[in-house]
């Protein structure tokens, strides 16, 4: 099973953080959330080949076990429309990352389909020493970073928790469709939170999880970035 393979891999490689590709694949296989198609490449040439296969526009991101905030080191380039833009983006990512975080091991890049514009939301799980796993919900970008407009509930969630988590954030009107903007599918977001609650409950080896962001649409919800950190092997919270 994918989870067992994954745990073996990270233990062999002595790391606790899953790569973006591993995290997305696990969440997708567990049926928690749709993710944008994400493929690894180890060279510029391979990145161009993969981009052509996926179809433009694409997104290029640095793939490194040591980097979890990729934009902070110039590791994300969106909206690449041609092979030559992919080639330049690849070179720019490599030089920026080497300059900003010289010690980081770089495995290559991921190439992803560019998700169509939607409302960016975030969902996350962290563990509270007293309450255990807690889920977080909010709108992405400036809403979470500057305004801290987020809500929390203790796992396991019931539907009412999921529904309240979404409706109690200040940015809720944006999700309902603001000035002619496309609304988000709120029942689908509730279901995703409920599935996430079951997922972290069933997998106590997960220490931290972030879907940041999920693009929410009228008819769909798609994660474009995912981060999962596992408990250290032998940690007491693993049962
Ligand atoms: P970071 O590690 O910095 O969080 P992300 O993968 O979240 O990197 O990318 C940064 C931003 O780029 C996202 O918040 C989102 O707005 C945009 N983005 C990332 N991936 C995609 C994608 N596949 N399609 C469209 N936009 C994307
Ligand atoms: Mg992100």
Report what the structure shows.
The protein has 2 domains: about 35-115, Dna Ligase, domain 1 (2-Layer Sandwich); about 120-239, D-amino Acid Aminotransferase, Chain A, domain 1, CATH 3.30.470.20. The chain is about 35% helix and about 25% strand. The chain has about 240 residues and is α+β, with helices and mostly antiparallel strands. Helix 3 (about 45-55) packs across helix 4 (about 85-100). A hairpin with a 4-residue loop joins strand 9 and strand 10. It is globular, with a radius of gyration of 18 Å. It has 8 helices and 11 strands. It starts with a helix and ends in a 9-residue tail after the last strand. Strands 1, 6, 7, 8, 9, 10 and 11 form a 7-stranded mixed sheet that branches. Strands 2-5-3-4 form a 4-stranded antiparallel sheet, sandwiched between helices. Bound molecules: adenosine-5'-diphosphate and magnesium ion (MG). Magnesium ion binds near residues 212 and 225.
Give the helices and strands, then pairings.
Blueprint: H1 2-12, H2 20-29, E1 34-35, E2 38-41, H3 44-54, E3 58-63, E4 76-80, H4 83-100, E5 108-113, E6 119-128, E7 132-139, H5 142-145, E8 150-154, H6 159-167, H7 172-175, H8 186-202, E9 206-216, E10 221-223, E11 226-230
Helix pairs in contact: 3-4, 6-8
Number of E strands: 11
List segments where confidence is low: pLDDT < 50 over at least 5 consecutive residues. Answer: none
Q: Give the C-alpha Rg.
A: 18 Å
Number of helices: 8
CATH level 1 class label of the largest domain: Alpha Beta
The main β sheet shows up as: 7 strands, mixed
Structural class determined from secondary elements: alpha+beta
Tally of individual domains: 2
CATH architecture assignment of the largest domain? 2-Layer Sandwich
Q: What's the name of the CATH homologous superfamily of the largest domain?
A: ATP-grasp fold, B domain
Question: What is the molecular shape?
Answer: globular
């Amino acid at each position: 099973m994918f989870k067992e393979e994954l745990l073996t891999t990270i233990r062999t490689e002595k790391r606790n953080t899953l790569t973006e590709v591993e995290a997305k694949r696990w969440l997708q296989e567990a049926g928690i959330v749709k993710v944008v198609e994400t493929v690894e490449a180890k060279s510029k040439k391979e990145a161009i080949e993969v981009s052509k296969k996926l179809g433009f526009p694409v997104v290029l991101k640095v793939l490194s076990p040591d980097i979890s905030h990729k934009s902070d080191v110039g590791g994300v380039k969106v909206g690449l429309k041609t092979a030559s833009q992919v080639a330049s983006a690849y070179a720019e990512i490599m030089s920026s990352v080497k300059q900003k975080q010289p010690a980081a091991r770089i495995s290559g890049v991921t190439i992803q389909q560019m998700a169509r514009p939607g409302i960016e939301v975030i969902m996350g799980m962290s563990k509270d020493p007293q309450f255990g796993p807690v889920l977080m919900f909010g709108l992405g970008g400036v809403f979470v970073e500057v305004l801290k407009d987020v809500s929390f509930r203790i796992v396991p969630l019931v539907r009412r928790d999921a529904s309240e988590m979404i409706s109690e954030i200040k940015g809720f009107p944006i999700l309902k469709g603001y000035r002619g903007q496309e609304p988000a599918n709120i029942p689908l977001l509730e279901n995703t939170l409920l599935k996430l609650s079951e997922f972290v409950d069933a997998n106590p080896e997960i220490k931290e999880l972030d879907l940041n962001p999920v693009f929410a649409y009228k008819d769909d919800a798609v994660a474009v970035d995912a981060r999962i950190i596992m408990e250290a092997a032998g940690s007491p919270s693993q049962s």
